[in-house]
Design goal:
With about 230 residues, the chain is an all-alpha fold. It is built from 8 helices and no strands. The longest helix is centred in the C-terminal third of the chain and has 39 residues.
Length: about 230
């Protein structure tokens, strides 16, 4: 019967198997990105890998607790998953609430932190130059690599004005950044509610008696209580 002990057990197992699959995908993406040099920013790779490992550990804890109907495992699973729900829900709401000015500020901070190699890859990949403009600071050192190569590409493709200069990267990436924030916020919000559902399901399953469990009975010799 749906809602009974067996149904709750199977639903909790299936949900944690889904989390294991998602965690495996995260780990695979991080390893592939590092091996193929698609992502050279190590903190990004490390963050994705850490999220995958953490999620798979929680999923294994939930699987073990669901299979064994272990009260302690299920309790810690509920607590950790609820804390994860609070964090992920807050981050997802923050991503959805970020406006264009805040997105530009965060993008500027990220641009300032990465090295010239990463900036050069961004310029070549998206055919842009600099972050907002090409003004040279007073110290005479620009905060972006040379744009000669990307300018020639832009001029050849005629995607820019007759001056054959690429647009600043912020103008080129503005829509992509907004889409990324909205996508991350939506996915994070969806998975946060699945985690809340898993907490409710684990609590329900934890409080349900196991129908196959037989209470122990003391057995005494017949001669001890019959006269």
């Amino acid at each position: 019967m749906c809602g009974g002990f067996t149904c709750s057990k199977n639903a909790l197992i299936a949900l944690n198997v889904l989390y294991v699959v998602v965690a495996s995908i995260l780990i695979s993406v991080a390893v592939y990105g590092q091996a193929s040099s698609l992502v050279t920013n190590l903190p990004i790779v490390g963050g994705i890998l850490a999220c995958g490992v953490f999620l798979i550990l929680i999923s294994l804890l939930g699987l073990a607790g669901a299979v064994k109907h272990h009260q302690v495992m299920l309790f810690f699973y509920m607590v950790i998953l609820f804390l994860l729900f609070l964090v992920q829900f807050s981050v997802a709401c923050a991503c959805l609430a970020v406006n264009s000015d805040q997105q530009e500020m965060l993008a500027q901070q990220g641009w300032n932190k990465v090295n010239m190699d990463v900036k050069e890859q961004v310029q070549e990949r998206f055919q842009c130059c600099g972050f907002q403009d090409r003004l040279i600071p007073a110290n005479g050192t620009a905060d972006y690599p040379s744009c000669d190569i990307v300018d020639r590409i832009c001029c050849k493709n005629m995607v820019i004005s007759p001056h054959c200069q690429c647009e600043p990267c912020m103008e080129t990436l503005k829509e992509r950044i907004d889409y990324a924030f909205k996508l991350c916020g939506g996915i994070g919000l969806f998975f946060s509610f699945t985690e809340l559902f898993a907490v409710w399901l684990a609590r329900r399953y934890r409080n349900q008696p196991d129908p196959s469990y037989k209470e122990p009975h003391a057995i005494f010799p017949r001669k001890n209580y019959l006269y």
